[in-house]
Every structure is written in C-alpha cells, then in structure tokens.
Amino acid sequence: MFNKEKKADLNFLSSQPTGILVFENGLSIPAIGIGHEGHSVGEVCFNTSMTGYQEII
Known about the structure:
The chain is mainly beta. It has one helix at 53-56, and strands spanning 19-22, 28-31.
C-alpha cells in the first residue's frame, strides 16, 4: 500500500551541481546529475510538439 506519511526524497534538488552540460559554442551549464556516474557524450533533442517524438530521435 502507498504510505501517505512518507515524503519523497527531494534533497538532490538543493544539492551542489554534479554534472555539466557543454554546448558546441562553448556555453556550459552546471546541473544535477541523476543516474549512472561517469563521463558521457550524447545529443540533446528538444521539441515542443505534443506528438512525433519518434521522428525526433
């Protein structure tokens, strides 16, 4: 059963930045990393539409 008394652990929201997002133009944004620890390289896709997610990636 769901425990209404138990609060979600949101301490990570007030934590110091543990990651950084670096753009091709040199802009870097500190961020809170969630998930696997280590170095990663990837692509950021942003779309404001409500449908068509499969076409984005």
